[in-house]
Amino acid sequence: MSVVRSFTKPKFFGLTVLVALVLGALLGLLARQAQQQWLTSTLHTIGSVFTSLLQFAVIPLVFTAIVVGITSLRDLGGSRKAARLGGKTVLWFAITSLIAVLIGIAVGLVLHPGSGVRITPSQATVDKLSARTQGSWGALVEGVVPDNLFSAFADGNVLQVVFVALLVGLAAYALGPKAAPFVAVNRAVFDVVQKVLSWVILLAPIGVLGLIGNAFATYGNGFVRPLLSLIVAVYLGTLLVLLVVYPVLLRFVGRVSPLRFFAKAWTALQFAFVSRSSSATLPLSRQTAVNLGVDRAYAGFAVPLGTTTKMDGCAAVYPAVATIFIANLFGVELSVWQYVVIVLVAVFGALATAGTTGWFTMLTLTLGAVNLPPETIALGVAVVYGIDPILDMMRTATNVAGQIVVPVLVSRSEGLLDDAVLNAPSAPPLLGGDTDGADTGDRADVTGDRSEAGTRATEPVGAKA
Fold first, then answer.
1. 370 near 57, Cβ under 8 Å?
2. Alpha-carbon distance 306 to 93, whole Å?
3. What are the tens digits of pLDDT across the range 30-87?
4. Which residue, among 366, 328, 125, 296, has the nearest Cα to 226 in the 3D structure?
5. What average pLDDT does the structure give for the chain?
6. Helix (H, G, I), strand (E, B) or coil at 200
7. What DSSP assignment string belongs to 38-79?
8. Measuring CA to CA, which residue among 431, 425, 415 is closest to residue 463?
9. 3-state SS class at 269
C-alpha cells in the first residue's frame, strides 16, 4: 500500500518515467550496436502491449464521454446555454489552431528544416506507408458516417464513433428523462473504463521503456541525425504554443495563473508525452480541467470533444513544419497560396486527426492540398516516419494542453470558472487520493446528481478542506 502511494506521487512518478526514458534509449542502442535481436524483440513486445492496453479502451471511453458530456450540459441552463457553450468551444478550437499553424509556418520559414538534407527511406517503409489510405477531403467526408451503427465500433474508427456519439448524445439530450437509464449506463461504463485506464497509467514507466527502446533499436541515431532539423523545428513550434501562446491566453483571457495551470496539468501532460495518445489521456485531462475550476458538466463535454478534434500539435504545428521540411528536402518552393492552403487545412481539417493514425492522415491531407507530386508525398512521409515516435511525444503533450486550456477560457467567459476550486490544492488526477492509485473522485459524475450543495460537482480531486 505505502509503496503504491509513494509511486503515485507526481514527483516520484515523473522521475520514474524519466529514468525509464533514458534506460529505454540506452537499451535500444545496446540492442542495435550489439545486434541483440532478443532484446529488440523484448522491447518491441513491451511497447506493443502497453500501446494495446491504452488503445483497447479508447472507443468505449470516447463514446461514453461524449454522450455523458452532451447530456450533462442540461444542468448548465438549458439548450440555449448549451449551444452557446458549444459554439464558443469550437470557435476557440479554431482560433488556437490558427495561431498554432501560423507559428508552425513561421518556424519552418526561419529554420528551413530539410534544406541540404540527403536521405533515402527504405523501400519497405515506402511500401508499408503506400498501403495506407492517404488523407483527402473526399475520404474525410465519406469516412464520417459509418455503414451501420455497429461497424464504427467493430472497425475501431474513432472519427465515426465521434459522429455516432454526437448523434446519440443529442438524441438523449432531446429525450430528457426518458433517456435517463441509457445515460446512467454510459456513466457507469465510462467510470469502469476510467478505472481500468488508471491502472494502465501506472505502467507508464515500463511502457515508455519499451516504446523508446524499440525506436532506438530499430532506427538508432544514424537515421535521427539527418532529420535533426525537423525534430528541432517541431519541438520549437510546439514549445512556443505550449509555453508562450497558452500562458498568454490563460493570463489575459482566462485570468488564470499559467504556473497554477501547469502545476495542476503536469500529470496529464507528462502521461500524454509518454503515451503519445490524447484519447488515453482523456480521464486525466477531464479531471485536470475540473481541478482548474471548470464545471464538471461542461468539462465532460468540451474535453472529450477536444480530444478527438482539437490537436494543435498534430493538426497545426506538425503538418506545417513537416510540409515545409518535405518541400525543402525535394527542392520544391512553396508559394504564398500554398501557405494559405496549409493554414486552411489546419483550421478546418482537424477532424482528420481523430484516431491513432491521425498524424499520417493530416500530413498527407496537407501535402495533397498544397499539390505536391504523389511521388514526393510518398517518399517524404516515408522519411519522417522513422522519427515519428520522437515527434509524437511533444505533439501529443501540446494537444492535451490545448484540450484543457480551451474549456478554462470558455468557462471564464461564461462565468462558470470556480476560483475557489482553481486555487485549492488538488492531487494529481488518477494518481493521488486515498486509494491504491486511481480514485478519480467522480462519484458526483457517476450519479449525475448535481442538486447537492454548491461546488461539490466541481470539487477537485484530493482537495484539502
1. no
2. 8
3. 888 888 888 888 988 998 888 888 778 778 888 898 898 888 887 777 778 888 998 9
4. 328
5. 80
6. helix
7. HHHHHHHHHHHHHHHHHHTTHHHHHHHHHHHHHHHGGGGTSH
8. 425
9. helix
User: Smallest Cα–Cα separation from 258: which of 247, 270, 266, 269?
Assistant: 247
Model confidence at 462: pLDDT above 80: no
The answer to whether 387 and 224 have CB atoms below 8 angstroms apart is yes
pLDDT band at 182 (very low <50, low <70, confident <90, very high): very high
Q: How many residues does the chain have?
A: 465
CB distance 244 to 84 below 8 Å: no
Phi, psi of 354 (to 5 degrees): -65, 130
- The packing angle between helices 374-385 and 388-413, to 10°, is 90
Question: Is 332's pLDDT higher than 90?
Answer: no
Instruction: Name the DSSP class of 144.
Output: T
Residue 455 has pLDDT above 60, yes or no: no
Neighbours of 389 (CB within 10 A): 17
DSSP state of 459: P
CB 321 within 8 A of CB 230: yes
- Among residues 59, 281, 48, 51, which one has the least CA distance to residue 156? 59
Backbone angles phi, psi at 135, to 5 degrees: -70, 140
Task: Report the percent of the chain where pLDDT is more than 70.
Answer: 79
Contacts of 78 (CB under 8 A, 6+ apart): none
Cβ pair 380, 367 in contact under 8 A: yes
Gap between the Cα atoms of 281 and 176, Å rounded: 30
Average pLDDT on 109-133 reads 67
Closest CA to 197 of 67, 66, 60: 60
Element (H, E) at 398: helix 388-413
> Cβ(379)–Cβ(220) under 8 Å?
no
457: pLDDT strictly greater than 70 = no
- Closest to 289 measured CA to CA, from 410, 195, 433, 439: 410
Q: What is the pLDDT of residue 219?
A: 66
Pairwise CA distance, residues 362 & 134, whole Å: 9
Separation between Cα atoms, residue 179 and residue 173, nearest integer Å: 8
Q: Is the dihedral of CA 409, 413, 416, 422 positive or negative?
A: positive
Q: What is the pTM of this model?
A: 0.80
Which structural domains are found in the chain, ordered by start?
A: 2-458 (1.10.3860.10)
Q: What is the pLDDT of residue 281?
A: 87
Model confidence at 215, in pLDDT bands (50, 70, 90)? confident
Measured distance CA(380)–CA(239) in Å, rounded: 24
